[in-house]
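SECTION: protein entry
WANTED: fold as tokens:
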Amino acid sequence: MRMKWSVGVLTVIATLPLLTARADEIPEKYRGAVQKGLKYLAKQQFKDGHWGANGDQYPVSMTGLGGLAMLMEGSTVREGQYAKNIRAAADWLMARSMKGNNRDGLVGNPDHPTETGRYMYGHGFGTLFLACVYGEEDEKERRERLRDILTRAVKYIANAQSTKGGWFYTSAKDGHDQDEGSVTITQMQALRACKNAGIPVPKDVVKKGYDYLKKSTTARGGVVYSLGRGGFGAPVGGERPALTAAAIACLFSAGEYKDDLVKKWFRFCQTAIPVTGSAMHDEYTHFYYAQSVYILGDDGWERFFGSTPADQRVTWSAYRKNLFDRLVQMQNADGSWSGGGGFSVGPVYSTAVFCTIMQLDKGTLPIWQR
């Protein structure tokens, strides 16, 4: 199934240095696990179109992530096995685009008890999903509505940015001029997806976000939790492997493959993220690290670092085998994954994340294509 993208997006994609000629299919031995996982997600979707974690927690974030997992399958808002699920999720999120006052453009519900203190996560994942849906929406009225929602969502992200250039769980406009790495990555990928969809994105906002990640990088090459809490520079010893992996994915999704920061981050992740065995924040870490290693492919490491012994390279085929084999073993009979480290919020979250990771080979969405 082919997706519709603008000429500008196709031109950018065609010139990327690490691109392969075509996307590959998921290796056959993993297809059954993906199918079971997606069927589980479909059964967990509420009748009004949304998903929730551990009952009904973080509904905006979970709906964005669940919808993305189904888009990765190749279904769209118009056709495919999960078209109805995707459309229902899109409808639910579109209905939560706020209008008026200082929250105009926010995709979310700050009054929900589990969203109040961290609504920027939901906004980021919701905006990312809706931007990916936009490319396939051919109903004029819905398309115009989506464009308006995404345009205002981008403005909301811009206004929510902190003075240090990052983003926090809540908007700077709400008096929370703070920053946190994982929220920053979520907003920057949402901005990139909107740009891919043809929605105007202010360059200065992206530049400030990039500078924030650069300042948040220690001499060891890792990204710290918060630049604000680190004073004037990122303290060595405060690096977070998950955030460093997310930073790589952020620049890769923006088409930045030659940046020296990417090299530093990859070197740090190579030793800090265990490919076998469980890791703290397992889902989150591999959600972003998998995106990065997939785009790196099997020959990208040597393009970055020159000739390297095979056992010292990071490659997609080796990473995929180690991680995917473990995921197949961990999957429950109902198709779900129970969750990994302390960051996990239940099987809907874990299953959406792992299904997305295991479908990267399909190359369905531009945000995660080689």
The CA atoms of residues 202 and 271 lie 35 Å apart. Residues 140-160 form the longest helix (21 residues).
